[in-house]
Amino acid sequence: MSRARVVDSVDYKPFETKIPAGRSRAIPWATVMAGSLITIIPVVATIPLLPPFGFVMLLAWRLLARFAFKPWAAAPLGFFDDLVSGQPLGSAVLMWSLAFVAIDMIEQRLAFRDYWQDWLIAGGLIAACILVGRFIAVPVGAHVDTILIAQIAVTILMFPLAARIVAAIQNKRGAE
Amino acid sequence: MAPARDRRTGFSRRRQYGVFMGYVLAVAGAVVGLVLLVASTFNPPAFSALRMGVAGVTTPVSTGLATVGSSISGIPDAIGNYFFVKQENVALRADRERTRALLMRARTIAYDNRRLRSLLAIRERSTAPVVTARLVSSSASSGRRYALLNAGRWNGVLPGMPVRGPDGLIGRVVETGPNAARILLLSDGDSIVPVRRTRDGMPAIAAGRGDGMIDIRSVNATNVRFNAGDLFVTTGTGGIYAPGVPVARVTKAGSDSVMARAFADPDTLDFALVERMFMPVPPPRPVTEQ
């Protein structure tokens, strides 16, 4: 292995130039909104199987990089998600805000967390958010429940990907 | 992970109030969400202008992505066509010979039909489509079944217009923006279409189930038997959909309420025709002052 590769593989780079502060604050917002825009992929689906990726990105930022968002950021991001997701307007504003509050309450009790616990918290919130969203948007009698379980599973499995994206960006962002 | 390091705010009043305000705003966000949700539940088209404004930006992007996607996925097809063109030619020639007699008969029947209709003086409504456009994306992460059409008010698309594909009914327009329209698909839980069976004209209702299938329910009789393969077309009742548009085929026999599959399979939707409302609601009669 050449010397350059060895130096590259070291994570700790104290003198590397970081992303400037303004852009560094905007990037988390941009990534969550890009996640919400997953619905613009050109597919006319008969079943709701696409994961709400904006919410997964939001949870990853909140759990892995606590100061990326102010506590109130969930509401405007949820508003944008509602505009593109097809859910009744206000459902993501409500659910995402409540998710932030829930994470705050968990954080007070569970100060030292590892990655698996983060994933578990995210999984619980994803399942709750999708389930409540289903009862808000679709009549109780509709036959979407089996697909919903599949969607929840797919969405929970997306969390590691979101965590990877967040970690890669967080390495480049300056310390706050 | 180490605990968040600014849990303690120290002695700085400014910092303490800042953190406190953050949480007040977070809870206020949830309250605003609840208010918006109630507003949009009782008045669904309330925020359609905002939604369609965003859709006006995303629809061209989806259209571009669809074009790129279809041209890439079309490459294997094009190669296959190149190699199998001779066999296909032979098959098509044979097919033409077989259907020639049928075509002659169909022409005669069509002529007779036209003549008899003119005898009956049936008032034919113009069935010219408003616009032909593409369905470019859908609400694939939500339980609702909406699709976005890349044509809007600039093309003459208005809320309430029926949308059909080459195979059958797709749904109807619910919201329009300048260059995009939101289509409520047949399989949405809120979609209800009056239909009749082609075999005997028995009326029924086609209601969406939310999982891509459609429920066919009998309306005016109990213990109605549905067979697998029964075909249903629109009746024209209600004034939105023109009569005779294919809607669904029953997949499994049963009585009173059975599952059916739509003819226009949205997974393979390509082009969609937006048509005028069959018989729009007349404007309210002006109130005369006395």
UniProtKB/TrEMBL annotation, chain A:
Q: Where in the cell is it found?
A: Cell membrane
Q: Which GO terms describe its biological process?
A: regulation of cell shape
* One GO CC annotation: plasma membrane
| Organism encoding this protein | Sphingomonas faeni
Q: Matching Pfam families, A to Z?
A: MreD
Membrane-crossing segments per the record: 26-45, 89-107, 119-142, 148-167
Concerning its family, UniProt says: Belongs to the MreD family.
Official protein name in the record: Rod shape-determining protein MreD
Q: How does it sit in the membrane?
A: Multi-pass membrane protein
The UniProt keywords, alphabetically, are:
Cell membrane, Cell shape, Membrane, Transmembrane, Transmembrane helix
